[in-house]
Amino acid sequence: MASHKIFDTINLTFIDSDGGALRKKFHVWQALIFDKSNGKLNFYNDYISNSLEVYITSFKNTKSFSKVIFTEIYPVLISDVSYDRSFTNQLVEFQVSF
Question: Average pLDDT in the 40-55 region?
Answer without folding.
Answer: 92
